[in-house]
Amino acid sequence: MVHRAPNTLTVIDKKKHGKKRRVISQAFSDNTLKSYESVILEQVQHLCNALRKGDDSQPVPVGSFSPVKDLGHLSDYFTFDVMSNVIFGVPWSTQRDPRYRFVPDVIEKSNVRVGALSQAPELAIFRLDKYLFPEAIRARDKFIHFVEEMLRQGIQSATKSGKGAFATLSKAIDPETGLPLRMAELAGESATLIVAGTDTTSTALAACFFYLTHHPEALMRATAEVRGVFDAPNEIIMGQKMHQCVFLRACIEESMRLSPSAASALWREVTDAGADVDGEFVPPGVDVGTCIYSIHHNPAYYPQPFNFRPERWIPKEAELIQSDVELARSAFNPFSIGPRSCIGKGLAYVELHLVLSHVLWTFDLHRPSGELSQIGEGQPDGPFGRQRVNEFQLFDHLTAAKTGPYLHFKPRV
C-alpha cells in the first residue's frame, strides 16, 4: 500500500520471501518478545487509566461505574501505541494524545480498497479502483504522509536509542546468505508490521471483550481465574503464573475462532507444477484459497460452531477428550499457517494475555443499557449472515473493520 520495496506480504519469489522472513523473525524470538514486555505493560497501564476516567477526565471512585467506553477505538489506540513502541522504541501516544488518532481510521478506510483488490484484482485495470473507492484513495494518501513522517522520526529514534525491532533488524543478517535487509526493505517491513499488528490485534481484543461480556458465566470464570492466580497487578507478567490462566487462554482462542481478524481467503497462485488439493488437480496459474471464517465454523471440527464455548479448547471439559481438542486445533488458523503465516503471532498472544489479565483483575465489566449494548451484535432481521445476535460483527477489508463493543468499567481498587 505504501512501500517502495516488496515486503513479506507482497513479495512473490519464495527465496526472497524466505530471506526476509528469516531476518524479521529475529525480532520476534522468545527472548526478544520478553524484552518488549515492559513496553506492553506501560501501554496496558495507559489503557486502564482511560477505562477508569469519568466524564470530567478524573478517575471514578472505587466501586463506581465509568461512563460508557468504546472498546473498538480504545483497542485501536492501545495496539497502535504498542506496535509503534515495539518497532521504533517510541510510541505515538494515541491513548493520551488525540493528534494521531486519525491513523487507525485512515488505515481502516484505505483497507476497503485493498480488500476489494485482493478479491478482484481486475478492478485495478484502467484504474477502476480510483473511481470506485475515492474515499479510500484519500485515506491512503493521508496515511502515506503519516508513514513517511513516522519512518523519519522512528528510524532516527531507533538508530539513536538502539531500542525496538527496527534497531534489532538493522543489525540482523540472514543466517543462510549472510545478507542484511536494505534500508528501503527495513522501512517497508517496519510500516507493514505496525499496520498489520495494530489492526489484527485490536480486532482480537475487541472480540474478547464482546464475547466475555455477552456470556456472563465465562466472564465470571475468567475473572475469578485471573484474580485467583495473581495477588496484585504487579504480578501480572508473562511466565509460569500466566500459564495457569487456562480458561482465559481458551476465551482468547474461542474469540479469535468466532471472529478472526483476517477472515477471508488469502489467495495463492498455483506454481508451474500444479497442485493436488484433496485429490483434485489444480493447474498452474489458478488462484486458490480457503476462507478462514468458514474453516473456523466447520461443524466437523467445531460442534455448535456459532456458539461461544471456550471449554472446547480444554481437555476433560464438557466431556471433551484430548483428541477432540487436537481436532479443533488442527483447523485453528487465525494467524494463517505455513511460511506465510503471521510472524507476530507470539507478540499478539503476549499483548492479549497481559491486557485482558490486567483489565479483569482491576475492573468489573458491565454492558450498558439500551441501544449501546447492542452495538457490535448481529440483528435478527438483518441481512443474510448478520442475524446472529451474539456474534461480533466484522466487515472484511483484507483485515476486519469493527464497531464497539461499548462497556462500563467499575474499578475495584
TrEMBL record:
CDD domains of this UniProt entry? CYP67-like
Q: Which cofactors is this protein said to need?
A: heme
Q: In this record, what's one Pfam family?
A: p450
What is stated as this protein's family in its record? Belongs to the cytochrome P450 family.
Q: Which GO terms describe its biological process?
A: mycotoxin biosynthetic process
Alphabetical list of PANTHER family matching this protein: CYTOCHROME P450, CYTOCHROME P450 MONOOXYGENASE ATNE-RELATED
For this chain, one GO molecular function annotation is: oxidoreductase activity, acting on paired donors, with incorporation or reduction of molecular oxygen
Q: Which UniProt keywords apply?
A: Heme, Iron, Metal-binding, Monooxygenase, Oxidoreductase
Q: Which domain of life is it from?
A: Eukaryota
The positions annotated for binding heme are 342
**What's this protein's name?**
Uncharacterized protein
Q: Which InterPro entries match?
A: Cyt_P450, Cyt_P450_CS, Cyt_P450_E_grp-I, Cyt_P450_sf, Cytochrome_P450_monoxygenase
